[in-house]
Specification:
Length: 347
């Protein structure tokens, strides 16, 4: 009986409205009323009261009129097309308007890609090769918002740092007083697992915060002299900073990863992470703060490389040149995903 109801519910879209309203009365299942053993077993799990048997529900198939009504439903294929359009639109908007060097340009991106972007080189197709990136970045933003809207320990959040003389424009997640810089990083479980086991941040994340630190320490006057109405977020409040600690708040948010081939492998993977972080006692096992004491770490080499990278981008832009492919800031492992691969092959 229940399966018949289910079949008819699925076919409901094909039933004309008049017939549908007639049938509707037959489909209503009152609370604590069950139609057969299947519902009974479901209800037993939900409510403690013994369900009352009701055998009066009958479906009169003769009343079903199979008049076709085209339903307009969600389909994955159409949704992927929507994502594709949104992705192209977003990339186009960003790439045609960007004027400054971002933190990711220094921490992660290929220098040729950064230069093609800042020189306004043509892009053949604005669509990213890996479209799930759209959902991943949406999740990342939601995680940032969640933590920032709840946490009371940050003294400053979403701080814009613009240094026009270096063409730099970045945004710090959070500061605590004048000496702690906090960066929220959402990541897949594969990265998260490596981070909690090694107790080390990803190199690109480390470079990113060192760039912020360098800017706060060396360019604060220029940053604070920018007209506030040109900044989209907050302005650094203090007149000086002396960043001694870097905190990463790592949050594992998904399992979409080329390192994992199946759902069962993914479940095993997460179980292992849960075990490592004792999820019985730690309900927020998917969030881990990692604190670095910069009194204990020599960051000179990283900092020099960051400055060299920023200066080289500026030099190339001033002279309208592109470094060759053997340059140390070129990232061949990014080529597969790069939107400038066509123009890059010609230079
Ligand atoms: S195709 Fe490769 S080398 Fe060329 S800009 Fe893109 S990432 Fe860099």
């Amino acid at each position: 009986m229940y399966s018949e109801i289910i079949n008819n519910i699925i076919d409901d879209t094909k039933i004309n409205k008049q017939k549908n309203s007639k049938l509707k009365n037959n489909y209503i299942v009152e609370p604590n009323v069950t139609t057969n053993n299947t519902i009974k077993s479901i209800a037993d799990n939900i409510i403690n009261n013994p369900p009352v048997e009701n055998n009066n529900i009958e479906i009169n198939n003769a009343e079903i009129n199979n008049t076709e009504v085209s339903p307009f439903l969600f389909t994955l294929q159409n949704f992927i097309l929507d994502i594709e359009n949104k992705n192209k639109q977003k990339n186009k908007e960003y790439l045609t308007n960007v004027k400054n060097i971002s933190a990711y340009d220094i921490s992660s991106n290929c220098i040729r890609e950064t230069l093609f972007k800042l020189m306004g080189c043509p892009v053949e197709d604005y669509k990213d090769i890996w479209l799930p990136i759209m959902m991943r970045s949406f999740l990342g933003n939601a995680i940032h918002d969640f933590i920032q809207s709840i946490c009371t320990c940050f003294t400053e959040s979403e701080i814009s740092l613009r240094v026009p003389s270096k063409r730099l424009s970045v945004r710090i997640d959070n500061l605590i007083n004048n000496n702690v810089l906090v960066e929220i990083k959402s990541c897949p479980y594969t990265d998260y697992s490596k981070i909690i086991n090694s107790k080390k941040p990803r190199i690109s994340d480390f470079k990113q915060v060192l760039l912020y630190r360098w800017m706060l320490h060396n360019c604060l006057d220029e940053i604070r002299s920018q007209p506030r109405n040109t900044l989209r977020t907050n302005f650094p409040k203090l007149e000086n900073y002396n960043i001694k600690y870097i905190q990463f708040i790592y949050v594992a948010h998904d399992l979409i990863s080329s390192d994992i081939d199946s759902i069962s492998e993914a479940i095993k993977f997460v179980s292992k992470v849960k075990k490592t972080l004792d999820s019985k006692k730690n309900k927020f096992f998917f969030i881990t703060p990692l604190t670095l004491d910069l009194n204990q770490i020599d960051v000179t080499e990283f900092e020099n490389e960051i400055i060299e990278h920023v200066n080289l981008i500026n030099y190339c832009l001033d002279n309208n040149i592109i470094p060759n492919k053997s340059n140390k800031f070129v990232k061949p492992d990014h080529c597969f995903f790069c939107l400038y691969s066509k123009v890059c092959s010609t230079v």
